[in-house]
Amino acid sequence: MLRSVLAIGAHPDDIELGCGGTLAAHRAAGDAVTMLVVTGGQNGPGATAERRAEAEAAARNLDCLLRWGHLVDCAVTADAATIAVIEKAIRDTDADVVYVHAPDDSHQDHRAVAAATLSAGRHSRRILHYRSPSTTRFEPTVFTDISAHLDTKIAALSCHRSQVENSAMVDPEVVAASARHYGAQARVRHAEAFMPARFVWDLSPVLEMPLITQMPAYPAQVPA
Amino acid sequence: MLRSVLAIGAHPDDIELGCGGTLAAHRAAGDAVTMLVVTGGQNGPGATAERRAEAEAAARNLDCLLRWGHLVDCAVTADAATIAVIEKAIRDTDADVVYVHAPDDSHQDHRAVAAATLSAGRHSRRILHYRSPSTTRFEPTVFTDISAHLDTKIAALSCHRSQVENSAMVDPEVVAASARHYGAQARVRHAEAFMPARFVWDLSPVLEMPLITQMPAYPAQVPA
Amino acid sequence: MLRSVLAIGAHPDDIELGCGGTLAAHRAAGDAVTMLVVTGGQNGPGATAERRAEAEAAARNLDCLLRWGHLVDCAVTADAATIAVIEKAIRDTDADVVYVHAPDDSHQDHRAVAAATLSAGRHSRRILHYRSPSTTRFEPTVFTDISAHLDTKIAALSCHRSQVENSAMVDPEVVAASARHYGAQARVRHAEAFMPARFVWDLSPVLEMPLITQMPAYPAQVPA
Amino acid sequence: MLRSVLAIGAHPDDIELGCGGTLAAHRAAGDAVTMLVVTGGQNGPGATAERRAEAEAAARNLDCLLRWGHLVDCAVTADAATIAVIEKAIRDTDADVVYVHAPDDSHQDHRAVAAATLSAGRHSRRILHYRSPSTTRFEPTVFTDISAHLDTKIAALSCHRSQVENSAMVDPEVVAASARHYGAQARVRHAEAFMPARFVWDLSPVLEMPLITQMPAYPAQVPA
Amino acid sequence: MLRSVLAIGAHPDDIELGCGGTLAAHRAAGDAVTMLVVTGGQNGPGATAERRAEAEAAARNLDCLLRWGHLVDCAVTADAATIAVIEKAIRDTDADVVYVHAPDDSHQDHRAVAAATLSAGRHSRRILHYRSPSTTRFEPTVFTDISAHLDTKIAALSCHRSQVENSAMVDPEVVAASARHYGAQARVRHAEAFMPARFVWDLSPVLEMPLITQMPAYPAQVPA
Amino acid sequence: MLRSVLAIGAHPDDIELGCGGTLAAHRAAGDAVTMLVVTGGQNGPGATAERRAEAEAAARNLDCLLRWGHLVDCAVTADAATIAVIEKAIRDTDADVVYVHAPDDSHQDHRAVAAATLSAGRHSRRILHYRSPSTTRFEPTVFTDISAHLDTKIAALSCHRSQVENSAMVDPEVVAASARHYGAQARVRHAEAFMPARFVWDLSPVLEMPLITQMPAYPAQVPA
Fold first, then answer.
1. Could you read off the pLDDT of B94-135 as tens digits, one per residue?
2. Which of B104, B138, B178 to mutate to test the interface with C (most CBs of C within 10 A)?
């Protein structure tokens, strides 16, 4: 049985920064992955259409499905409407694991998306919080080994050219440094780090086997 | 590839109380499991030989290998000798995951075994702290679903008759209640709860398959 | 002197789940108890009139006064209006102790009611946070012994038939399990658990005496 | 029924500094109070005999029973011997509530006494940690109103003349300031502050009554 | 090079209570200091014009520049508008260090101003949270020595006559007690205490020198 | 007035790993710096004489005074003897700021040195905890900008050839990555990160001036 993975971010590039390597690892393991970008990132540098195209390119790079929340940048609150958007994504994907912002973050949208996801995912068994450059409190205890996927992560992030070129917060050099920093902490080479809201470890048998190659083509698609 | 699991407890019955259901789940998944009991529990109720026999019966019930640390009850410290005992067990079992007491506990042996395991396991990628009745601070974020294994856990615990009958701290009714309490928290029926010191989630493909039945017989053995 | 107790919950059934046994213990001790239900629970399963009747039945079961906040389910915020509702209840009851949701909770209404109560109760000497199934961080240090009142708690909870039958979050079996779990932690049989925002322990003389039987009849009343 | 109170400190003057006002309040409520001083304070300023006499004078001031642990200053560890001393005191006094140092403290004896008390009091329902000038982490949530007893606290502390005159850590002016600081936090005039290890709040009826005056004379006594 | 200091508070008197002594110490060191008061405090006791005059008098006392945010008392949220007000103040003053409320506070405006400042100051190297009487969680690790400035602090606070006379929360006696309490913790006589959001310690050479006396007159000014 | 700085580590290389860049920055600011290495590191890879020579070379590189504690590797406890060694170093250097291991660390010597330093430094106004690869809990809030000193740090660390070549825990690549990771967090290029036990920020005037060049030659010296 393959897993269904849902990664949620407030703005285009948040997911790639926080857990892009892990999503690549999920895809390599044959899991289905959907990225839910809650707003269009209208407030940062970069025109809306440009940011939309960048997000699509990044999702293609990561070989993940892309889904938009259509809420407004810098005006997200953890209210019933936001919760409904996320609930629908969890239901549609039947997600086994949900990745989302850490709850303590200096960006109001990040806080709101984290809180709304905890509401929407109240029946989910696995919710992992990733770190953003604006996260204020982060004590990770769960890690994934992204040694084989750091390049993919940085390639996906680089698709967000409007951000990489204009925001001090999006710096591939820092991404690589943090991956090595957390890797040392996790006793692997490169790692992404998570704070679990709740993580039920599935002990079902783990088998080593040739990677399934007949997996159906899985291009990034954008629902209306 | 099957996993190698090492569970460490200060006294006979500590492991069963803290993660007995999880060990049963590991065995059901085909993993190899070793229990390292650091002392003979000479200070609690029950004669030493009796407690040794109880621990052997419990390990047989859980179908796990049993290993003794031969240190002295109520006199364990996190010194080089204790660390060496645990380092040897980690090396001998080539452990993929280590279970051990939570670090904040009112029993001095529990604290010492937790601290010594963090030293001994400094290169391990997965160390999970379980809860004891004497644990003082415990905020679990990682859970395992033991709904299918609660009976086995209680059966193994019941082998420690000298404790169940004489210690207010070992009460099967409480064990079942806590499993349900943590189950609700984990969104499953019955759960065991853990605080990760460090947990690298292995994303290798997970496949559903008939349980391997030809697994070699794996009786509890007691190394000299 | 008898105590005046105020318990505050966002929805019908929250108070019963969180501290119903403790309220029963307060009544047994002769204290006056008021339950303030901030919304009508319009969004959960069950029609509004049905939920209102259920709450009244539960309050009768606990022999407590019931008071409604008339705010809207799933739309509570910790703003001046909500604070005013709670301030008035504190003033009207001259509350010696206030029970309310824990501040870290995945339900937005629970968070809002907790925050508004801390504002409204800024001069109160005793505010205790109870746990809900949706609470995310909870490290209790204060407990009450509800061994003699668990049945009453579950009977009161069972009045909320629309919830018990339809919500995975309201399960009497879990309520009993958690009471035993926290009881073991508190060194009693069954307990409810609390995180104090602020708790001034009153050291006035405690005397054992026959329960006052001439207490005025104290039926659940619903203010307009 | 009156309560039996046990206050434990590593050195003469620790108990007075940490909870002297609360002990006075317990005595005023008619409770029996025993102070267990674990060492003779041989390492601080002041000769041993002098410190012994100071402690006796302070206990007389507080009208509490004094008991010595006879361990060695600056060499206390949380081992079986220390635990046995405290277990015996808990058993002898049949303590309803135990006061002891906070666990995080820069003085090794304070840490050891706190840890040993958590072991010894593993079946106790009420253990409250008080603060010392050397405490490093202290987030109090439980308070007692000592407005009527601050003078008694300072008088008892002043009996420890060898300390007040020679140690920067024992300063009555700071004691009064902290009592006011915590009083404001507790919404009373003067308070002592505590972190509960575990506190079962007894809801038995609380009645206002004239203070019992025929209480048996209760002078400070020093067991051999 | 002199430092530029920005202190932010939700209401008139918040800054004086939280870090008035530190601001005086900054002025004594020759630093430029701006106080940003986000609302007019319309909801507390005292007419708006009166409170405005009080704030101006206090700023004159502290010899600091005063700046108003013009938001509405009890209705501040951490939204884009509030963030913009604070961003502008940080930019205008080119602040080297920002002082602001602690994030966990029972007053909704305090929480909102703290959160908005973390957003606005996302590129700042030094943000220190001060304590208010309504702060709920506060574990200070950074302190300033205000022994020479406590009188100035209390004089500035006393300018807020409408508060000192009518609010239990504003009490000069408590201010002095807390300064002594935190002073003992910091190993100085009187201290103010801070929780750093982020504090880059500048190790540039520190030289002892006669205080610059020709500093340009620096009266409190109120921008339109 | 120049500052006197004392950095304390359990083994040769601990100080360089934890705060080597900061010590270089202190030297650049003209401060006097002493490194106290508590044990000879007899248990790690490398002969004792070799490690002694490596530590001397590293201290020369950092232009700091080196001082040995002469305790035994892997057998340090926070007892009176260890405290005395550190007290003497604090007294001899009249230290204005003390750097030491973080208290939560999986290495027993690191924990013991951290605890003993908190005892020995009970009157110190500035104690900052640095991180080691074995640190288990670390939430830094204080940072230093080591952008200009990262090369010096790595050069000093490289003097510990026996460690760099043989221990997975000492890896210059990780050191550089962590410096960039924490730099991003501190809003500078490269940073070292600290948890303050207690940090009194000295607000005395900070002036920009040409670096004092006539500073007396300050070679690394080894007291007997």
1. 999 999 999 999 999 999 999 999 999 999 999 999 999 999
2. B178
Q: How far is CA D159 from CA B102, B152, D11, D73, D217, in A?
A: 42, 61, 14, 20, 21
In this prediction, residue B192 carries a pLDDT of 98
Count up the domains in chain E and report the number. 1
Which residue out of D3, D22, D31, D141 would a mutagenesis test of the C interface target, given it has the greatest number of C Cβ atoms within 10 Å?
D141
Task: Give me the phi and psi of B80, to 5 degrees please.
Answer: -60, -35
Which residues, in sequence order, are CB contacts of F99 under 8 Å at separation 6+? Answer: F5, F6, F7, F8, F15, F18, F19, F22, F23, F128, F129, F130, F194
* For residue B28, pLDDT beyond 50: yes
- CATH label of the domain that carries residue B69: 3.40.50.10320
What is the DSSP annotation of F145-201?
E-TTTHHHHHHHHHT-HHHHHH-TT--HHHHHHHHHHHHHHHTSSSEEEEEEEEEE-
Mind telling me how many Å the CA of A39 is from chain B's nearest CA?
29
Q: Going by DSSP bridges, is the β-strand pair B191-200/A142-145 parallel, antiparallel, or unpaired?
A: parallel
Continuous H helices in chain B: 14-28, 48-62, 80-93, 108-120, 150-158, 161-164, 172-186
Q: Chains meeting D at 3+ CB pairs closer than 8 A?
A: B, C, E, F
Q: Which residues in A lie closer than 8 A to residue C108 (C-beta atoms)?
A: 78-80, 83, 115, 119
Residue A178 domain flag: yes
- D207 in a structural domain: no
* D127 beta partners: D98, D198
Selecting from F133, F139, F181 the residue whose C-beta is nearest the C-beta of A178 gives F181
Torsion C2-C3-C7-C8 (CA) sign = positive
pLDDT band at F122 (very low <50, low <70, confident <90, very high): very high
Is the pLDDT confidence value at F68 over 70?
Answer: yes
Query: Containing domain of residue E94, as a range?
Result: 4-199
Q: Judge whether D221 lies within some domain.
A: no
CA dihedral (D182, D188, D193, D196) in degrees, to 10, reads -140
Q: How far is C127 from chain D (nearest CA, A)?
A: 10
Alpha-carbon distance values, F129 to E81, F98, F137 (Å)? 38, 9, 11
Q: Which two tokens stand for residue A194?
A: 């998570």
| Averaged pLDDT of chain C | 91
Give the chains touching F; criterion: ≥3 Cβ pairs < 8 Å: A, B, D, E
Please give, rounded to a whole number of angstroms, the shortest distance from the CA of B190 to a CA of chain A.
11
Instruction: Tell me the nearest-neighbour CA distance from A177 into chain F, angstroms.
Output: 4
For residues C120 and C79, what is the distance between their CA atoms, to the nearest angstrom?
Answer: 11
Query: How far is it, in rounded angstroms, from Cα B149 to Cα D44?
Result: 56
Chains meeting C at 3+ CB pairs closer than 8 A?
Answer: A, B, D, E
Check contact A-E (3+ Cβ pairs < 8 Å): yes
Residue C144 identity (one-letter amino acid): T
Among D185, D191, D199, the residue with its CB nearest the CB of C143 is D199
Ranges of residues in chain D whose predicted pLDDT is under 70: 1, 205-224
DSSP state of A98: E
According to DSSP, the residues that pair with A194 across neighbouring strands are A130, A142
Q: Is residue A122 part of a domain?
A: yes
Highest mean pLDDT among C165-179, E32-46, E182-196: E182-196
Cβ atoms of B68 and B222 within 8 Å: the answer is yes
